[in-house]
């Protein structure tokens, strides 16, 4: 029996063996002592990638499971920090990261991130700046926003747009902060 539904044979999905192997590794890591060196972290889960194969696992189902797994690992990491009296340090790290995010987002519109050359596609600057405005309201005004909104945001492509790696790194940091203060 499959762990996840399969994509149609004609469409690509995540490599079944890779996903199943990762889930075994994740289970072992979750069941082990969180202070063990080299233990899988919420960040590791967020950056996990699988090869695509025809008839593989449904990407939407696996992605949803990875998000739940990331949430569980983040909660476990937060609880472990609280257990050793690092709660204030944990929150201070989150505050510091949130301030670094705000510092980046307070840059002038159109100049918040490096731009790629006019011959290269990057993220649409208007789309990113619009979402950046929502993030500023979340951090400064406490406007509601879910971690799923950050995880699933998409931006159109644009020649000369923002460098994708920089925007993605900032979104990862936002996710870290949101999971830390949950």
General description of the model:
By secondary structure, this protein is mainly α. It has two domains: 12-83; 87-180. The protein has seven helices and four strands. Strands 1-2 form a two-stranded antiparallel ribbon. α3 (59-83) crosses α4 and α4 (87-105) packs antiparallel against α7 (164-180). This is DivIVA domain-containing protein. InterPro entries: CHP03543, DivIVA_domain. It comes from Leifsonia shinshuensis.
Helix/sheet category = mainly alpha
Shape: flat
**Overall pLDDT metric:** 88
The DSSP helix count reads 7
Order of helices and strands: EHHEHHEHHEH
Low-confidence stretches: none
Question: Which range does the strand content fall in?
Answer: 5-15%
Oligomerization state of this entry?
A: single chain
Q: Termini distance? A: 35 Å
The percentage helix is 55-70%
Give the C-alpha Rg. 18 Å
* Count of the domains: 2
Could you describe the largest sheet, including whether it forms a barrel?
Answer: 2 strands, antiparallel
Strand order of the largest sheet: 1-2
Number of strands: 4
């Amino acid at each position: 029996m499959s762990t996840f539904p399969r994509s149609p044979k004609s469409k690509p999905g995540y490599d079944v063996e890779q996903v199943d192997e990762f889930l075994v590794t994740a289970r072992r890591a979750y069941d082990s002592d969180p202070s063990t060196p080299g233990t899988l972290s919420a960040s590791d889960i967020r950056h996990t990638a699988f090869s695509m194969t025809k008839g593989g696992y449904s990407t939407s189902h696996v992605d949803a499971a990875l998000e739940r797994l990331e949430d569980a690992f983040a909660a476990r990491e937060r609880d472990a920090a609280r257990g050793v009296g690092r709660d204030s340090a944990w929150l201070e790290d989150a505050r510091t990261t949130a301030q670094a995010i705000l510092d980046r987002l307070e840059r002038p519109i159109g100049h918040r991130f490096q731009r790629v050359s006019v011959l290269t596609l990057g993220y649409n600057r208007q789309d990113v700046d619009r979402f950046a405005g929502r993030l500023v309201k979340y951090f400064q005004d406490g406007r509601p926003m879910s971690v799923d909104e950050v995880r699933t945001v998409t931006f159109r492509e644009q020649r000369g747009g923002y460098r994708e790696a920089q925007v993605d790194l900032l979104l990862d940091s936002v996710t870290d902060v949101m999971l830390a203060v949950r």
